[in-house]
Write a structure and sequence with these properties.
17 strands; 3 domains; 16% strand; Rossmann fold; eight-stranded parallel sheet; 3-methyladenine DNA Glycosylase II, Chain A, domain 3; 446 residues; TIM Barrel; alpha/beta
Length: 446
């Protein structure tokens, strides 16, 4: 990766600020830290872009499966550990469909795959792809099954066949969907490499020997294939840990270009598939292929993925907005909190538990919690008042405004800023139901 000075030498040095940075040097530093793209500067000459294109590319190539609005980008990684910067493209999970199945069974599996969708802390988890396996050894049947599956499933597809001709025929039938072809081997690497170049479909290359895998990659590249995926034939946890780590370390630390591609782990027939999928998620896999995945298995696996691929330097946030809870009206109290997702969902859950109607105003604090945001000057009476004005909540309800107990000291200034009665709430979210009950009783007595 070029240094900031190397980037700076190729920039126009006009300090025009069109890139969003105050100076060209500041922009060069962002480029060196991979927090900006060279395309962000509209004045960079093409010769400079060409000079930096290869050297500034991530050590692991980004390969995208699928087309249209729903795709599966894989790779693009630059670090071994997420605390160093962050991981880029979350691992994808795919379920398997056989070309021996009739349309009814295929449709049922697609429905089950679509149902593997969950919402957690404001984010939607879902299954990423389906893999069609050629169990019939019949090219025509496999091609027809690929066409049928592509009409039922809008997401990315993987085509697997141990024979070359069925794989090519099926891929031609749905090439517009840009499926991943699984998998090339020493016998068909030249044919599939050329076919990948012709169709633009990404190609998986399989070998349990890493030296052989590197040789196959070079042959595929020589045939013109560019978008490759490494399949180290690792399905047991121990093999996944060892081979995936060796591939990623070689790509990032040793700059070995033959291993600078996303990694696939095929867990078909694995007895401990969930354990293996967990290890693959933890250790650099970009795509995990499974025979089946139950709901009770999917949620913890998807949650693990979210935890690993969340940027540790950027908290998960919710949008600044007004959220009605338990159908509030023009007399309901007004709560407010920060946009740190854990704080928001905790507060909201306890309000819902109370069964009391409340207007909940979320204030943008750049994802910081209540005390942290207050200490950083991002959770102030002025910010809260501005959020109230934006949502218009003070015109929707004449109820009291409840300030979080941890920042009770802002209550006086906030009362002056909004010209509304302010009540100090609880320090802990768990006490909200009891607090709301007492608040309702006191208001009824008034």
């Amino acid at each position: 990766m070029p240094t900031a000075i190397e980037f700076f030498k190729l920039l126009p040095k006009t300090n025009c600020k069109d890139c969003g940075q105050p100076t060209c040097l500041a922009f060069a530093m962002q480029l060196a830290n991979q927090k900006a793209a060279l395309e962000d500067c509209p004045h960079v000459e093409q010769s400079a872009k060409d000079a930096l294109a290869e050297s500034s590319a991530p050590p692991v190539r980004t390969v995208t499966v699928g087309s249209g609005d729903w795709t599966l980008p894989m790779g693009g990684e630059t670090v071994l550990f997420r605390h160093e910067r962050r991981f880029v493209n979350p691992v994808g999970y795919a379920l398997t469909v056989s070309d021996l199945w009739d349309e009814a069974r295929m449709q049922k599996t697609v429905q089950q795959a679509s149902a593997l969708s969950f919402q957690r802390v404001g984010m939607v988890f879902r299954l990423d792809a389906l893999r069609l396996r050629c169990d019939s050894a019949d090219a025509d049947r496999f091609s027809q099954a690929a066409t049928a599956l592509s009409s039922l499933w809008d997401g990315p597809l993987v085509l697997e066949s141990s024979s070359t001709e069925p794989l090519m025929q099926a891929a031609r039938a749905i090439r517009f969907r840009r499926p991943l072809l699984q998998s090339a081997n020493p016998e068909n690497i030249k044919d599939l490499g050329a076919f990948s170049k012709e169709t633009g479909c990404p190609l998986a290359i399989r070998s349990d020997d890493l030296q052989t895998l590197a040789d196959l990659v070079e042959k595929a590249r020589a045939a013109g294939a560019e978008d490759l995926v490494l399949d180290p034939a690792a399905s047991e946890p121990k093999d996944i840990l060892e081979r995936n780590t060796a591939l990623r370390r070689s790509a990032l630390k040793k700059k070995f270009k033959a291993f600078g591609y996303p990694i696939l782990n095929d867990l078909s027939g694995t007895a401990s598939a969930l354990t293996a999928a967990t290890v693959a998620t933890l250790r650099y896999s970009s795509l995990v292929l499974l025979d089946d995945l139950k709901v009770e298995e999917a949620l913890p696996l998807f949650t693990l993925r979210q935890n690993i691929y969340t940027d540790p330097q950027v908290p998960i946030q919710v949008k600044q907005a007004l959220y009605p809870v338990n159908d509030p009206d023009q007399h309901s109290p007004i709560f407010f909190t920060t946009n740190f997702s854990l704080t928001y969902f905790t507060v909201r859950a306890d309000i819902e538990k109370s069964k009391m109607p409340v207007w909940l105003q979320v204030v943008d604090t750049e994802g910081l919690s209540v005390l942290t945001a207050y200490a950083a000057g991002k959770f102030t009476p002025e910010n809260v008042s501005a959020a109230f004005q934006e949502s218009g909540v003070l015109d929707m309800s004449d109820g009291p405004v409840v300030v979080p107990g941890l920042v009770a000291r802002m209550s006086g200034k906030l009362e002056l800023a909004i010209n509304r009665k302010v009540v100090v709430g609880t320090n802990e979210s768990t006490a909200i139901p009891r607090f709301l009950k007492r608040l309702a009783e006191s208001r009824s007595q008034d």
